[in-house]
Specification:
Blueprint lengths: L6 E6 L4 H11 L3 E7 L3 H12 L9 E3 L2 H5 L6 E4 L3 H13 L3 E4 L7 H14 L3 E3 L8 H9 L8 E11 L2 H6 L11 H17 L7 E10 L8 E10 L5 E7 L1 E12 L3 E4 L10 E7 L2 E5 L2 E5 L2 E7 L9 H15 L5 H21 L5 E2 L3
Parallel strand pairs: 1-2, 1-4, 2-3, 4-5, 5-6, 7-10
Antiparallel strand pairs: 7-11, 8-9, 8-17, 9-10, 11-12, 12-13, 13-16, 14-15
């Protein structure tokens, strides 16, 4: 069990998203960064120099020229792994075997069996495991849960719908790792749909759907990819208590990241459930539309209230990514890993896998057993 008050982090890989978590580690009072690893010392040092220019750590930072070397350092307690999905299993397993706590980007594995193996390794090593879904650590979720369950705003939940998409440019389509079948085989479903599925499971308190299906709407691949990957996809989830959910994710539709929770009395709309729009508040709206007909007047009435919490969109001490690093560090320092985070990850992967299997079978329904 750790007795320190600060969790010492190492970053394994220099993917662009690591810059955001660099700042989050800098902002969290119970975390610090000690080392960054890349395939060469020079690449690691360049990354360090660029990030230090805007978010400075006073303590010396080590540029490590191999991933294995990072795992042997005794000044690293936790490893953040932003490597491509196709490489993650190997390094999660190695990190756990080295006794390092593991925060890993999503999708966590190529398949659910990989995720199960990773979780077992972390459990055996008594280290914390968590995936890097930042919105899970936003304080807005607490307000959403309260509103969803107040009995009046939504009533009985019936339908969940989400969309996460962005219009990828030509450079992305030809050269980004998310277009490579070996590195990111799930394409937009892994990169974007993971969030759709996770939000739906969160809304359902992690009750699993009984049946799911997916439709591959478009696929493509970079010139060096052995296979095409999904670039536009839709899915449908059915739950045993008469709740249904749909999701749409795409690299071909302009940026949207909304979620709707609809019920017998009203609905909640979140316009930015993944990446909060720039500002100092995270919000959502609650609507209970009305209809009034008097004589020849037919009036559709909008009764919408905005609910907001004080939480900066990014790069601050109360931002969701900083909350994630803070929560993870707290768990790592406690010496008592919370296995719930791994269970949530496995459920998300299981649903995603079933949707992809369905798409391969022309949208055939897939049964999910507990």
């Amino acid at each position: 069990m750790m007795t320190k008050s600060v969790c010492r982090w190492g970053i394994l890989g220099t993917a662009n998203i690591a810059r955001k978590n660099w700042r989050a580690i800098r902002m969290a009072e119970n975390a610090t960064l000690t080392a960054v690893a890349s395939r060469t010392t020079e690449r690691a040092q360049t990354f360090i120099n660029e990030c230090q220019a805007t978010d400075y750590f006073a303590n010396p930072l080590a540029a490590v020229g191999s991933y294995d070397a990072l795992l042997t350092r005794d000044d690293v307690d936790a490893i953040y792994i932003p490597l491509p999905t196709g490489l993650r299993k190997e390094w999660v397993l190695k990190a756990a075997q080295a006794g390092k706590h593991v925060l890993v980007e999503k999708p966590v594995g190529v398949a659910g069996t990989d995720v199960r193996e990773m979780l077992d390794a972390c459990m055996s090593a008594n280290v914390q495991f968590m995936d890097g879904v930042m919105f899970m650590h936003s304080q807005r979720l607490e307000a959403l849960r309260t509103t969803l369950e107040d009995g009046e705003s939504v009533g009985t939940l019936r339908r969940i719908a989400t969309q996460f998409s962005f219009q990828a440019g030509e450079e992305f389509l030809k050269g980004d790792i998310r277009m490579h079948g070996n590195l990111e085989p799930a394409g937009c479903v892994g990169d974007l749909g993971w969030y759709n599925i996770r939000f739906t499971l969160w809304a359902m308190k992690y009750q699993m759907p009984t049946r799911v299906r997916g439709q591959l709407l478009a696929a493509a691949g970079s010139p060096d990819s052995p296979d095409r990957v999904p670039v536009e996809f839709s899915g449908e989830l059915l739950f045993g208590n008469d709740v249904s959910a749909s999701f749409y994710c795409s690299f071909q539709t302009e940026n949207q990241q909304w979620a709707n929770l609809s019920g017998s009395k009203g609905f909640i709309h979140v316009r930015d459930f993944v990446l909060p729009f720039y500002g100092s508040e995270a919000d959502f709206t609650v609507s209970r539309a009305g209809f009034c007909q008097v004589g020849c007047d037919f009036d559709a009435l909008d009764h919408t209230n905005r609910i907001a919490i004080s939480e900066f969109s990014n790069g601050r001490q109360n931002s969701q990514e900083t909350n994630m690093i803070r929560q993870f560090s707290k768990l790592a320092l406690s010496g008592k890993p919370d296995q719930t985070w791994g269970e949530i990850t496995l459920k998300t992967q299981t649903v995603m896998d079933a949707c992809l299997t369905s798409a391969q079978q022309d949208g055939a329904w897939q049964t999910i057993t507990a």
